[in-house]
């Protein structure tokens, strides 16, 4: 009886009991004589000792995934050479190959695997691949889930051709760790392409977008930047937002601008926004703009802000207002400012306001005029003040008026100064009073004057007796 005949008559249990030495001593005929159930019963250690030249004789399709963990590189190379691209192994068997074996394959050997075999590689097997194994051909066969298992180092090592070959379906599978490995040339090839760029970038999940380096964000052009979805924009880090250019955001609709959070807005170079985009900033976004950002808004965009938006400007933000921006403010705009923001207007801002705007200030805002702001008022602006406005000025505000300003008040407006506020009039104010103003003052208001003011009135009369 030949060895082959003997082996073919063994039970499954007896096959399992064969030592690795016995299995190693099986010749080609004996290996070929192993029945389907025999092969299915082989262990990984038994499979590992079968000679490379005899492995072809084995009924490979019957090997269990457990046994395939023992397949050696030499055996696999023999299978690939003899059966052209590992046809002898079903895709369902591929998962049984050890990561140690997978890691030893060359890119040529890996390319010999058929599409379904590549797709059968497990996460651990994918992770075992190194840069030299990942060719454009093998990458093309990976599905989204497998691409999702690529590490940052693996993605970095893909090379231009392999990275550029990624489809939008594969890109959708990229993890945050994997996307972090993309290089700037990959970004350009994948996302700035006028044909496929939008679909590719749109496929990238939000976490992957957030993992892109600032250099990669900077590498996006109008096509790539414009393709960012609202969800992706929401995921951008403040460092990424800070690097955005006018070119990158040029394709953003106002809905995308509105999607930026307060922290993102604070990091944004608002000069990158066009007039329509800047004009569409929400009140919540405007409320967190810094003085530098406010100053960077174009006069056109600033002038288009509604009173609700103007009301949202903070005291810190309004300090950055340019004189040109202040010049666009109308009465309703200024009155919409909150009192803290209005009080923060500089003397330059006040000087830029039209006298009609000053004359239309609400009494609430007039009450918060600072001494510096009052000093900055021009003669035309002082003249524009109404009786109602003058009536709410405090003594310290009256005192802040420059010499000669009181004389600009018409008699009726002078009469509007409250009894308490009269105490703010200084000597030079009295010396500048007109006869009509003095007459008004002596009409029942003398008792409210201080001793100094009484003497100043006498001096103002010159030779006239009070």
UniProtKB/TrEMBL annotation:
Q: Which positions, given as ranges, span the membrane?
A: none
* Superkingdom of origin organism: Bacteria
One Pfam family name is ALTTAQ_rpt
Give the protein name, as stated in the record: Ice nucleation-like protein
Query: What is the organism field in this record?
Result: Shinella pollutisoli
């Amino acid at each position: 009886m030949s060895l082959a005949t003997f082996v073919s008559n063994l039970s499954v249990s007896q096959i399992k009991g064969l030592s690795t030495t016995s299995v190693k001593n099986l010749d080609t005929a004996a290996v070929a004589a192993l029945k389907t159930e025999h092969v299915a019963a082989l262990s990984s250690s038994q499979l590992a000792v079968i000679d490379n030249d005899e492995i072809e004789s084995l009924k490979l399709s019957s090997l269990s995934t457990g046994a395939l963990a023992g397949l050696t590189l030499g055996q696999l190379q023999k299978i690939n050479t003899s059966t052209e691209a590992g046809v002898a192994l079903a895709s369902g068997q591929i998962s049984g190959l050890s990561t140690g074996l997978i890691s030893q394959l060359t890119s040529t050997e890996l390319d010999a695997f058929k599409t379904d075999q590549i797709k059968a590689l497990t996460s651990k097997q994918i992770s075992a691949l190194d840069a030299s194994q990942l060719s454009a051909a093998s990458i093309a066969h990976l599905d989204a889930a497998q691409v999702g298992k690529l590490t940052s180092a693996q993605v970095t090592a893909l090379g231009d051709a392999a990275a550029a070959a990624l489809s939008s379906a594969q890109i959708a599978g990229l993890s945050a760790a994997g996307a972090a490995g993309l290089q700037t040339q990959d970004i350009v090839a994948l996302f700035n392409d006028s044909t496929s760029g939008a679909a590719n970038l749109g496929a990238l999940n939000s976490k992957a977008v957030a993992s892109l380096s600032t250099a990669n964000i900077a590498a996006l052009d109008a096509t790539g930047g414009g393709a960012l979805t609202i969800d992706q924009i929401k995921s951008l880090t403040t460092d990424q937002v800070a690097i955005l250019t006018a070119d990158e955001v040029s394709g953003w609709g106002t809905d995308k601008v509105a999607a930026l959070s307060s922290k993102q807005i604070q990091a944004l170079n608002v000069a990158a926004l066009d007039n329509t985009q800047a004009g569409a900033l929400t009140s919540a976004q405007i409320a967190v703009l810094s003085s530098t950002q406010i100053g960077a808004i174009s006069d056109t965009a600033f002038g288009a802000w509604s009173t609700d938006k103007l009301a949202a400007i903070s005291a810190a933000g309004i300090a950055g207002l340019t004189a040109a921006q202040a010049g666009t403010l109308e009465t309703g705009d200024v009155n919409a400012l909150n009192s803290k923001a209005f009080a923060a207007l500089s003397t330059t801002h006040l000087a830029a306001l039209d006298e009609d705007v000053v004359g239309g200030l609400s009494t609430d805002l007039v009450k918060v005029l600072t001494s510096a702001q009052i000093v900055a008022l021009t003669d035309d602006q002082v003249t524009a003040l109404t009786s109602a406005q003058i009536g709410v000025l405090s003594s310290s505000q009256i005192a802040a008026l420059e010499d000669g300003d009181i004389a600009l008040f018409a008699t009726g407006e002078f009469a509007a100064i409250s009894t308490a506020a009269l105490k703010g009039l200084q000597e030079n104010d009295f010396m500048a009073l007109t006869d009509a103003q003095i007459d008004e003052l002596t009409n029942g208001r003398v008792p409210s004057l201080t001793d100094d003011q009484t003497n100043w009135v006498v001096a103002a009369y010159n030779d006239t007796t009070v």
